[in-house]
Hints:
By secondary structure, the chain is mainly beta. It has a domain at about 270-390. It has helices at about 10-15, 40-55; strands at about 25, 55-60, 65-70, 80, 85, 95, 110, 120-130, 145-150, 160-170, 175-180, 180-190, 190-195, 200, 210-215, 215-220, 230, 240-245, 245-250, 250-255, 260-265, 265-270, 270-275, 275-280, 285, 295-300, 300-305, 310, 320-325, 335-340, 345, 350-355, 355-365, 365-370, 375-380, 385-390. The strands form three sheets. The protein has an 18-stranded parallel beta sheet that branches. Helix 2 links the parallel strand 1 (about 25) and strand 2. The radius of gyration is 23 Å and the shape is elongated. Mean pLDDT is about 95; it is low at about 1-20.
Amino acid sequence: MKIPRKLTCFGFLAMLPLSLSAETFDITRFGATANDETDDTKAIEQALEACGKAGGGSVFVPAGVFLLSRHGAESPILEVPPKTTFHGEGPASTLKFTAAANEGNFWRMIGAPVATGTHDVVIRDLHLDGANSFPAYIKGETPEHNAGIWFYNTEHAIENILIQNVFAENFAGDCLSVSRGCRAITIRDCTVKNFIRQGIQMGGDENARDYLVTGCRDLEHTVKPGGSTLHVEHARGLKNVILENNQCRKSILAGGVDGLIIRGNTIDGRLVGNGNLNQVVEGNLIRADEKAASVVQLGYAEGLIFRGNVIEGKHPANKVGLYIWGTSRYNSQASENLVIAENHITAAETAISLNGTNHSTVANNQLTFPKDAAKSVPLLIKRSEDITSDID
């Protein structure tokens, strides 16, 4: 590093990372005990509070299982203060809800202080266990709002958050969730399993922006997931979301974002989204399940580049490979300014369907159909205008 001539020695030292001198707060020093029936909630809360009072630092969870419970109206239960790294030793460091989580709702394990929000936080190398015992969603019974990480605040900012190498499983709601008040959020190399609602849930508001989810995956489930591996809804003005290089056993659903990039993912299921502006969908492998009538379905899209994707709709039920639509009885908006190029699309009946679109270019796509297909329609056009296509 080149030091400016006028920078004093003290000034140079001030530029060094705070982590070199930051204090570490081991939760066992505050009374948390691993691998027993003791409720460790208060001890971990005290460790986080001490870290906050010190102006930041590191809160450490050693190997072992530590039990958490809800004691009142806490949402979340563990509030991570600014400039804090909350971390363990990897999957061996487990934070687990008590069995009572199956009897109540709104158990959110980790998030931001409700009264202030938070910033410059790292959560890493932890195993979060929601202790869910429901095999599937049962309306009125499953506590669907329980979650692992839950960042949400309507009054204060939650900013510069890194969630890395976290394994979250057995949550009756979402494993990882970020939403209103959130800015500059990175979720990297995380693993989810056995979620009843969503694996990684993203929402927002007019101030929410800049989410990156990369290198994440879900493991084979022993419960019936009710939603997607990656799920964006209730965006409320959310801007700039990148979903990149993830492995999804369930679908990706992403809607309502201005500036959405979905790139390099493998998806066993569907890719669905409505109401996105300035969207790039590129280099994904989408392998439909046997229930998907349309493998990819995008509605009310404005400024969409759909390029270089592989769509495998090889089941008889996969009638349509790529379906882009707009101008319905619910919304007069057409899907506009579309580029569909260089994709390899396999479908049982119709490769590309445009219904209610304006100003579209379709070029250089490879379209295939099963040998026993009853009919093959490379491009189906309904209620659409101004289409440039190299398909006859």
